[in-house]
Amino acid sequence: MTAANNKIRRAPNKRPHPSKGVPLSSERVALIKATTPKGKNHPMWAGDNVGYSGVHIWLTKNYGKASKCMFKNTTCSGKSNVFQWANISKEYRRDVNDFIQLCRSCHAKYDYTEKQREITRKKSIGKVPGNIRSIKQYTLDGKFIKEYKAITHAAKELGILRSSISNALAGVSSMAGGYLWR
Known about the structure:
Elements: H1 26-35, H2 52-63, E1 83-87, E2 99-103, H3 104-111, H4 114-124, E3 135-138, E4 144-148, H5 151-158, H6 162-170, E5 180-181
Antiparallel strand pairs: 1-2, 3-4, 3-5
């Protein structure tokens, strides 16, 4: 391959923009910063309708990164180096008094309240997770023996490895534990 073949091919009469890839001068950067509207004057300002990310960006810009755990010496071990802003009211307003600084583990405990645990429990009662399906056990002659709610239930009751039953269901092996599975 020659050096001419290595060149970037462009459509005829198409040249790159003359300033493409050229860094802005410090004067130009200062001019852009000085003339760009800030805060409430910016055209993209959402006010109190800002979302979760917007409030956290606003918080970090105006008050810096969280740097300590307010629960230290109470529930916190004090070993963490990662700190986060935690919302008190769960309304995510632009009010620094509505936030506290917590370490990651305290933040997770703070956000996951007893009320949320109860809601999660109520939602999961009587429900079978999506990855569980009922399976049927047959003799080698093809006679139905029993239906199980899940592979785990059959494996525990019969003392067969779950992976063996899974392989039989997937067609990797013909049987598991001396039984056919469907």
